[in-house]
């Protein structure tokens, strides 16, 4: 006799990120489906700890088995408003599901979930499935390339003009350090804070960097000119790839070619750690950073982003490079560094 047909259906529920068993299940699901570091609950919880933005998520299950996951950060800001983002302070994220139908159900559910939380906007750092989503595929590109087998081959893999800049940096008397101790963190924050102030954007709170370093596989590489840090980058390691995520340089870094030296040294360091790919992260299409990464021989790959705004509400604009914020950027560049470092974290924790 044939077994009776058992109807199974997908059920959706909020994730319980306070439950260790749930965290372990979600971490395993992200790894199994090849999700990014920004899909990991560990990232959400680091953002919650370091920036005060609540870690949330929606889970899809079928017959008691996890089939979909949408990581979320509840972002609140007196300047930029409220939103659910996937994921907060990330360049990737969005729905992770075994099939398109499950992905669509999660995308439908997050709209209702956002309204329940009084968040009129949902932002996905990835594609959306279903109706009512505004898609962008021309705003940002990602840059990923394989690492070479040895130091010489890595240098040869860099196009000629950029390789000449790296060689200049190698000839300069710069000291390079790696780690995540207090000295590394202080050096990185000093360099990064000056770098973003010069670009006209507020710096993230120190606590965000600390939480990421304490809870994820991450470290800091710094190039020093004598006793002064001139370039520094906080990098993430995930699934065989290194991603230089929060990096910058002082004014002195330019003539010292310290940023060029820094990224080349990171490539070598990552390979020795066992990485096989260098993920240069995302850049706004056509920007200076976009062209810089192309000069290194990386091919830009368009990224998909999706957003949803509840009827009757204006679209949230937390992009510090948008036309709406140009006057604020110009003003921020003129702030004394000490004042920018004091005010910046209060603003930047709400960017999400």
UniProtKB/TrEMBL annotation:
BioF2-like acetyltransferase domain location: 161-294
Domain of life: Bacteria
Xref: NCBIfam families: pepcterm_femAB
The protein, known as: FemAB family PEP-CTERM system-associated protein
Organism: Aurantiacibacter rhizosphaerae
């Amino acid at each position: 006799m044939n077994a009776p047909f058992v109807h199974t259906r997908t059920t959706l529920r909020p994730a319980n990120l306070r439950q260790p068993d749930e965290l372990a299940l979600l971490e395993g699901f992200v790894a199994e489906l090849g999700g990014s570091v920004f899909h990991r609950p560990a990232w959400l919880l680091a953002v919650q700890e370091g920036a005060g933005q609540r870690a949330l998520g929606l889970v899809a299950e079928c017959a008691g088995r996890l089939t979909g996951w949408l990581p979320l950060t509840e972002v609140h800001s007196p300047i930029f408003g409220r939103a659910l983002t996937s994921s907060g302070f990330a360049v990737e994220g969005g729905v992770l599901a075994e099939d398109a139908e499950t992905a669509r159900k999660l995308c439908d559910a997050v709209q209702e979930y956002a309204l329940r939380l009084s968040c009129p906007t949902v932002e996905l750092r990835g594609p959306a499935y279903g109706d009512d989503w505004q898609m962008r595929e021309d705003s940002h590109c990602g840059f990923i390339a394989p690492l070479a087998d040895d130091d010489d081959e890595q240098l040869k893999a860099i196009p000629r003009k950029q390789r000449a800049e790296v060689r200049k940096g190698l000839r300069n008397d710069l000291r390079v350090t790696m780690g995540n101790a207090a000295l590394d963190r202080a050096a990185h924050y000093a360099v990064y804070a000056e770098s973003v102030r010069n670009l006209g954007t507020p710096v993230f709170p120190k606590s965000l960097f600390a939480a990421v370093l304490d809870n994820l596989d991450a470290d800091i590489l710094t190039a020093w000119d004598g006793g002064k840090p001139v370039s520094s980058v906080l990098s993430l390691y995930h699934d065989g790839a290194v991603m230089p995520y929060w990096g910058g340089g002082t004014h002195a870094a330019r003539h010292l070619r310290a940023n060029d030296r820094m990224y080349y040294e990171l490539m070598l360091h990552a390979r020795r750690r066992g990485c096989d790919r260098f993920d240069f992260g995302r850049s706004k299409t056509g920007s200076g950073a976009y062209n810089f990464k192309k000069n290194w021989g990386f091919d830009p790959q368009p990224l998909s982003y999706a957003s949803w705004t509840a009827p009757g509400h204006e679209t949230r604009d937390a992009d510090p490079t948008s036309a709406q914020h140009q006057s604020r950027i110009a003003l921020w560049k003129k702030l004394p560094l000490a004042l920018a470092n004091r005010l910046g974290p209060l603003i930047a924790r709400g960017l999400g």
